[in-house]
Fold this sequence. Notes:
This protein is an alpha+beta fold. The chain has 20 helices and 17 strands. It is globular and about 75 Å long.
Amino acid sequence: MEDPKLAYYLKLRSNILLEGDVSLAEEEAKHFFESVTRVFAPSIVRDVIGLPETIADLHARGCQPIGFIARGTLYTMEMLVLQFNFVQEIWRRYTPEDDELIGRVPWVTRITYGEADFICAVPLMAAGEILSQSNLTQTTQETLRALVTFLATGRQGKFHLVKPNGGSTSTQHVHGLHAYKAKFFPRLIRSLIVTSLPSLPRTPAGNVSLLDPFVGSGTALVEGSMLGFESHGIDIDKLSCAISQAKLDALRLDQKFLSQSIAELSSLIELSQEDEGYTFPPIIAKKFDRKGKVDEKRMYEVSIARWKRAITGIANPDARRLFEICLSDALTRKFNVRMMGTGVGRFALEVSKKSIDSIMRSNLSNLLRAASVAKTIVEGYGLRLAPSSVRSANAAKLPYEPGRFSLIVTSPPYLPASSGREDYLVGKLISITALGLMSEEEIHHVETESIGSMKSTPPAGDGLPDSVHKLYNWLLTDSLRSIKAQPILAYYEGLKKALEESYRVLLPNGLAIYVIGKESVFYTYRTREVLYRVPCDDIFGELATSCGFIVEKRVDVELDKKNRNARPRSMDKYYESIFFLRKPR
Length: 585
């Protein structure tokens, strides 16, 4: 019989819903252990390492498998808690050598069951998710210790932590500071980074350098910085840059300073009077005017102006930037822009019943909680945050010298943006104008230069796969969809240029990880009859190889996105394809 002291029980996060995520977790575990076996019943854990079934199954997934039995690793427990992203708890038999670790860090505990002693460690990603979902006003190292005890024994203690069997996987600590469509899942991105590390080239200084050329809301930069890697991001959209920078700033915030700044802002908003300092962009204002809601429009404009004036009164620029992002998020939640998919820019404006004031006050409380959890994680796991930068630029014209980066992790706009089903800039217009991030001239420039915009510069269409031209020709024959033909051609032309630039700035043997939509579907709206399926994954693979990349691997991951209001074909399964592209040595 194998020595139980050599075996680990890796309990999966209980909020893992799909088989694809289980497979990703299994692949991650195989990077750190020689042998990984799925656990389909808690009795297996009892038989292998002696852990009682009730504990092996405590807070476990409601379906199989509940975890893995793993053997053979060169990684210490301190390394594993930083590397695992789909694992909720790491269990193994206790040894006397563990005493030093148990006395030094808050994320591991010793537990006795029967005649056997065990240690239970909680990985960084799981701790961040669960602490964030618990909505505690403040978290400390004591809270982290209480979380480990709660997961290991079921005993709550004084903090009333939430059971770890649900909640979002994309909003832990600073990741939740701003609503963002098509946001990266932090545990997926972190997993992609850590499992790629052994194969990455280093810079002349011996470091790993990371780039996200479509930075979006900054998920890759936050996780890269927390892993200790120099991380850089660019985006043509200045609001995306501002959101990303705010998240990076929030990782480093002093809690006392933040509390004082929020109190200062609360005082300023109470003193702020009606203000003429903001008007909606014309295309938004028309939505109110056409329905005769001029007074309602004016009320919202006054509320936005009041918060703008109050935020301007904050002297510290770091706090001011964070509060601007809180306001942007409040406006995003208050005014939801939903594209109609016609290709001519039609959209519906849905206005929440919650007031801007109430959303802002909630956002400020959430900011304080997020910063507290981030500080708890950074200090509890001994992280050294690496330098990061964000700048506004075009992914098709990267402002970096050749051979600058070890790793690119990114997700470009998906094809539906080019077919009018989505227009990210229109959805952000209220925030962009409220924060004064772009002039009308700059907005027009972004609209024409963005990859995936319906207003892109007319394309030449040279050097694209035959399947793209086939799609283009089909669109031209459809009177309802012919308006989408040129933008889709421009989309693939821009995507190819972005891939060429990614190739240029990577070090030899560098890796580019692109996450794209696997498929896009054109369909009859009323009957949902499929008219044309676009193999986005195959087209992307052809584009990548034409730019010189070697497609090392492609992984298709199902997403839990069954929303009846979603497009296309809302009740179909939806997949993303993850491409691992290697630049030859």
